[in-house]
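hey can u check if this looks right to u? its 203 residues, i copy pasted from the old doc so theres a chance i mangled smth
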Amino acid sequence: MKLFNIDSGFYKFISRFFDLVKLNFLWLLFCLPVITIGASTTAAYGVALKMVDDEESYIARSFVREFKRNFKQGTVLGLIFIVATYAIYLDYEINRISEDGSIPLIVIGILSAFIYVSAMLYSFPLLARYENSVIGTIQNSMEISRRYFGRTLLITGVLVVEFVVFNFNSILQGIGFFFGGAFGIFTVAAFAKRIFQEIERGD
């Protein structure tokens, strides 16, 4: 039957789905010590960037290789964003428990969230694809966010929609647990790789 032919769209869809399930499992597993979240996320992006153009067929082997290769820098990058995430969370909590709400804190929170997204969105895929320092990687992520502002907003919007969908009900939450994280990583990787290729061509 053509439905199950390896060249059929259905077969490719199912194959990609299970690839994302495997990638999601590996990403969660290697995130377990918490301190390795950055290295695990970098490894997941390393695999996802290749998956975008069907350049990778051995998910587990490639993930472990990328994890080892980017362990030090990925771990440092992850710790930076854990601290930044906690700082933004504290700002949110302070505003939430404040009776009137502090306008300066709200403005600072919005600006901090914008800078946070700009710095984080492309950092892990950049680290997975290019050799650079951690600070240089963050700076490049912010520059790409500025230069490709429209696409950055689009990526952020898509990620928000995915988050809402995967948290719509308990069934979708279960589906999201099995491959939601990897799906989000793949989404960013798909956009980011096209941007990286444009930059490499000098467009």
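The chain has one domain: 2-201.
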